[in-house]
């Protein structure tokens, strides 16, 4: 689905009972950033996989990557004291040709450094080396594992992918990942495999832990539950399967005003593959630029202006306020 | 007004059933929340029980709600179906056990 079609569908969602209306009803409009603690970099949309839920529509055919010049600008920004976390995502970040260099430079800054990996790529040459690079640079690894059952994960991500993720987890476990005593963090991400919301993070984490330990002997630290946002390939699935109206209604019915205060966009700045700045990864995919008068590119970063910016909202934002709320760090409560 | 007794959107009206009898309604919801949330049994186990009861009772609203809840909690399709078979077996058993009444009468009445 192209960008224009996505905007048309979002516009229809906005016509009545928009996210903006709900914010007004909760005395939370305009929604403003309160700081910038997390700098999230989408370094490339290229990916070795082509998952059915992927909002950035990652695939081997995607082109474009964060340039060295923009990566250097990100490193300069990451060094300011207010930023605590560098969150690297994609696509498959490992497919960025300068990721190894970047991680080594970023590790020197001494901030929390995490990479969101699909896991399967860590078994492929020439990316296998990242298993050791992550351990050496102290990277927190976040692996996407939509479901602890093989059949469901493979349905979303492709045949055989579940097995490869489990093998990658075993390799990471061997390097001390997923063990609370080593300090090497391996977190998993759950996305619902279909048109429904995630269950309680606590209950799902317990389910993942017992199944993965019992059936495969693998360990992880925490599970992050993410609500699927009606953007990109997931929006396409909702439309084609006839689930779009019900899913949007479900998100709206599940609006939780308490989740608004903790929305990730209020403490995060997202950097696109071209160095442009966005309120979040979803706005980046939808090409929703930052609000007027705010620096629009990482090279023009200005903490004072950006940390108080007005967040650009549309009805896809209901995904982050549904139920317990959702963020790249899991549920908000 | 719709001509159908059962409308999918009626499920959204469930939170409003305290209307006209608010005290009882509020007490019901307090009880409902306590009974269906995790206790000695997990939320997952309770959701499977609820799905089974919903299916046995033929409640389309509850089947919708608890199928979605089971999916949300990562319950397998096979686990949901297995739970429903427990309900089906109970219904069959509960029917058949009443054959005792028929058999008792037959044996008493016939020469």
General description of the model:
The complex is a heterodimer of chains A (333) and B (111). Chain A contains 14 helices and 8 strands. Chain A is α/β, with parallel strands linked by helices and 333 residues long. In chain A, strand 2, helix 4 (99-107) and strand 3 form a beta-alpha-beta unit. Chain A is globular and about 50 Å long. The relative contact order of chain A is 0.17. Chain B has a domain at 42-109: AhpD-like. Chain B is mostly helical and 111 residues long. The longest helix of chain B has 20 residues, at 77-96. Chain B has helices at residues 22-36, 43-56, 60-72, 77-96, 99-109. Classes of the chains: A alpha/beta (333), B mainly alpha (111). Chain A binds chain B through residues 147-149, 190, 192, 194, 196-200, 203-204, 206-208, 249, 253, and chain B through 12, 38, 42-44, 68-69, 71-74, 76.
């Amino acid at each position: 689905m192209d960008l224009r079609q996505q905007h048309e569908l979002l516009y229809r969602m906005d016509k009545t009972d928009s996210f903006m209306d709900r914010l007004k009803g909760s005395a939370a409009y305009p929604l403003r950033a309160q700081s910038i603690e997390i700098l999230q970099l989408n370094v490339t949309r290229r990916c070795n996989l082509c998952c059915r839920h992927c909002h950035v529509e990652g695939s081997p055919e995607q082109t474009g990557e964060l340039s060295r010049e923009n990566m250097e600008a990100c490193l300069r920004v990451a060094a300011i004291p207010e930023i605590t976390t560098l969150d690297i995502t994609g696509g498959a970040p490992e497919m960025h040709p300068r990721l190894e260099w970047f991680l080594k430079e970023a590790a020197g800054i001494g901030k929390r450094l995490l990479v969101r990996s699909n896991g399967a790529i860590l078994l492929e040459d020439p990316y296998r080396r990242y298993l050791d690079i992550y351990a050496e640079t102290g990277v927190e690894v976040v692996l996407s594992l939509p479901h602890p059952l093989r059949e469901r994960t493979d349905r979303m991500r492709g045949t055989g992918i579940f097995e490869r993720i489990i093998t990658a987890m075993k390799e990471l476990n061997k390097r001390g990942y997923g063990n609370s005593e080593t300090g090497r963090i391996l977190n998993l991400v759950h996305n619902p495999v279909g048109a429904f919301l995630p269950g309680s993070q606590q209950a799902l984490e317990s389910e993942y832990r017992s199944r993965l330990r019992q059936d495969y002997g693998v360990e992880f630290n925490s599970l992050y539950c993410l609500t699927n946002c009606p953007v990109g390939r997931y929006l396409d699935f909702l439309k084609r399967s006839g689930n779009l109206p019900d899913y949007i209604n479900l998100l709206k019915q599940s609006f939780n005003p308490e989740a608004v205060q903790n929305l990730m966009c209020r403490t995060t700045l997202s950097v696109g593959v071209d160095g442009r700045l966005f309120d979040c990864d979803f706005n980046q995919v939808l090409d929703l630029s930052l609000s007027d008068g705010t620096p629009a590119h990482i090279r023009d970063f200005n903490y004072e202006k950006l940390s108080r910016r007005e967040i650009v909202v549309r009805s896809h934002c209901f995904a982050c306020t549904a139920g317990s709320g959702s963020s790249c760090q899991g549920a908000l409560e | 007004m719709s001509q159908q007794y059962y409308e999918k959107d009626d499920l959204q009206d469930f939170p409003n059933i305290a209307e006209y009898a608010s005290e009882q309604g509020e007490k019901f919801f307090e009880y409902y929340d306590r009974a269906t949330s995790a206790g000695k049994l997990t939320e997952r186990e309770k959701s499977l029980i609820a799905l089974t009861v919903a299916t046995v009772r033929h409640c389309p609203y509850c089947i919708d709600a608890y199928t979605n809840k089971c999916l949300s909690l990562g319950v397998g399709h096979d686990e949901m179906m297995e739970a429903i078979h427990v309900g089906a077996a109970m219904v069959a058993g509960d029917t058949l056990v009443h054959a005792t009444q028929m058999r008792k009468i037959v044996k008493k009445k016939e020469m």
